Amino acid sequence: MQNKSSRKGIILAGGNGTRFYPATRSISKQLLPIYDKPMIYYPISNLLLTGIRDILIITWEHEISLFQRLLGDGSQWGIRLQFAVQAQPRGIADAFIIGETFIGNDSVCLMLGDNVLYGDKISELLQIANQKQEGATIFGYYVNDPERYGVIRFDENDKPIEIIEKPPIAPSPYAAIGLYFYDNDVIEIAKQIKPSSRNELEITDVTNVYLRQNKLSVIKLGRGIAWLDTGTPSSWLEAANFIQILEHRQGLKIGAPEEVAWRMGYIDENQLLTLAEPLMKSGYGQYLKNLVKH
Questions:
Q1: What does the alpha-carbon distance between residue 157 and residue 139 come to, in Å, rounded to a whole number?
Q2: Are strands 160-165 and 150-154 parallel, antiparallel or unpaired?
Q3: pTM exceeding 0.85
Q4: Which helix (H) or strand (E) holds 56?
Q5: Is 77 left (phi over 0), alpha (psi -120 to 50) or beta?
Q6: 254-291 confidence digits (pLDDT tens)
Q7: Which residue in 21, 150, 163, 235 has the fewest CB atoms around it within 10 Å?
Q8: In sequence order, which residues have a C-beta less than 8 Å from that of residue 261 and are 6 or more positions away?
Q9: For residues 86 and 59, is the Cβ–Cβ distance under 8 A?
Q10: 3-class SS of residue 159
């Protein structure tokens, strides 16, 4: 029986970004903007909404200084950011081996750096997953092209019975999104799985271990929630258009870590106003100031 513990967060922001070439020949894909904010802001904001304040960002060695210049150590948002190197693309599950010391005895949440998650009650769903200290929790999202993803197969009682990576014929329309909650056992599980035909440690193989142990929960995300995987230029542009339309119509920002940190109580009003000052010319700073005013 695992003792109740805190949860660490990991954002995997590595990869060569070859599907974005030549745009990413000199910069990480996760530093590209999705409309008005760097891509990395969106997964950070999701982890903050979960209640996670200790986050490791894994990227290439030559990219770390760029991430540090953008994000600092996280103290401006009332959190702690650390950075680690993925020397070669060994798969998503490699994040748990790289982050072993960082995770320590805690449970962990991994989010892919090119995923955007937005919608009503998303914070509530994330916190439900965070409260489950044993086993694993993943999220299923209804898509019209499930064969592009890891697909969740359910039995007649809607219980998950298999996760299949990019099947030619999908057994369901539910894709497993790039957000995973695991207990501390995930470190040893990741060490024990074998590389796939792509010579990568597949996250699907890790999740299937929990499934075979009857320790996997799946939360299906409904129509009111948007999951955007920005792994290609076209999907990246779709995400930017989505963010632009919503922000323009509502006047509210999506994926702004300053606002999330303030609303979660990680920073106070004075700290928020301080963060707003150097951002005034873009309108981003005025938005932050208006949060306090209103």
A1: 17
A2: antiparallel
A3: yes
A4: strand 54-59
A5: alpha
A6: 999 999 999 999 999 999 999 999 999 999 999 999 99
A7: 21
A8: 48, 77, 78, 79, 267, 272
A9: yes
A10: coil
